[in-house]
Amino acid sequence: MTTLYGYFRSSAAYRVRIALNLKGLAYEPALINLVKGEQRSDDYRARNPQGLVPLLETDDGIRLTQSLAICEYLEERYPTPALLPHTPEERARVRALAQLVASEIHPLNNLKVLKYLVHELKVGDEAKTAWYRHWITEGFDALEAMLTLEAGSGEFCHGDAPTLADLCLVPQVYNAERFECDLSAYPRIQRITANCRALPAFQQAAPEAQPDAP
Amino acid sequence: MTTLYGYFRSSAAYRVRIALNLKGLAYEPALINLVKGEQRSDDYRARNPQGLVPLLETDDGIRLTQSLAICEYLEERYPTPALLPHTPEERARVRALAQLVASEIHPLNNLKVLKYLVHELKVGDEAKTAWYRHWITEGFDALEAMLTLEAGSGEFCHGDAPTLADLCLVPQVYNAERFECDLSAYPRIQRITANCRALPAFQQAAPEAQPDAP
């Protein structure tokens, strides 16, 4: 059985859960408590030297890391339903939307970075929240503009079915809501998120539906 | 003619320059001075609402953003020489190495983040350098472990020819050297970087070889 090492609130694990669900692939969850630092244990690092979740271990013992690399692997091995459109140009658009979340917003706001701000840079609560919201705002401004201006947009980030872009967007919106970011300037993002959340694959991947959720 | 909007020191533009060179694709450089804030001009934002480089405009007027999405596009449209190996498992490994740089290290250390640290969080020079080195160390520790322990490694990150992973690694090493990070603990990273730098495609993509280099 495929095993997914993850944590209920990890955005990156959340993306992979959605991908697995959309493709109808069963998996065993292995829970790594990031707040307790279990990702840094020798045992876990022996599986993934990065000390990060997610890690996907396949039936045949192959270990895959980095959420977008895992999703691309799933797409290649289990092409239906597709998480990427057909033409290279459309695929590039979807990957750009996904990377905008995965490389411009999420890395700045994940747990290890917020901890560094507090513990090493002695940043107060207010400045930490301002930091968080700053990168959400900058990223979502760009994303909303792309979703509004570009031809490919539809009921989802690209067209009328979920793609790699949506499975990055929804976990990022979840995080933004947790930090009480004002999303009223992003009607497209909100509508697409609502469309995603109407699907069981997204519902079952949500943090609150995981076995390690409080 | 294909146009690449970039900046000599942008890691993300540097990646795309290497990919274009490896594939033997000619392009016109369009120079966007990030220090002067030209990426935020109305004119540039009309082309790329993200206000980021790189942006690749193809012959047929298609605009592509986000370096890894651009490289995947180039790989699909111009498959030879390949920047990704053949099997889904190997491709996943290369993409994971690339994402480790592109999502875990680079986003924390790019210009806009360093500016935020200095201007908004009033972080001093020493703490800024410590921040920079912290994320390099954490990321390179993981990368070195993967390159040492995993079967796929060779004279390059994966096997004996450059892949997507190498074109993320080399710009990151360039940045680490600029910030005088101690790389002595990373012999694999150093050897692979040296192998890359021996190739004209990497040499011609280097920041110092660009028309906007001082």
Any overview of this molecule?
- Chain A contains nine helices and four strands, in the order βαβαββααααααα.
- Chain A has 214 residues and is an alpha+beta fold.
- Chain A is globular.
- The relative contact order of chain A is 0.15.
- In chain A, helix 1 (11-22) crosses helix 7 and helix 4 packs parallel to helix 7 (164-178).
- Chain A starts with a strand and ends in a 9-residue tail after the last helix.
- The first copy, chain A, has helices at 11-22, 42-47, 67-77, 88-109, 111-119, 125-149, 164-178, 187-197, 200-205; strands at 3-6, 28-31, 55-57, 63-65.
- A four-stranded mixed sheet of chain A has the order 2-1-3-4, covered by helices on one side.
- The first copy, chain A, has two domains: 3-81, Glutaredoxin (3-Layer(aba) Sandwich); 88-201, Glutathione S-transferase Yfyf (Class Pi), Chain A, domain 2 (Up-down Bundle).
- The longest helix of chain A is centred in the middle third of the chain and has 25 residues, at 125-149.
- Chains A and B meet through helix 3, helix 4, helix 5 and helix 6 of A and helix 3, helix 4, helix 5 and helix 6 of B.
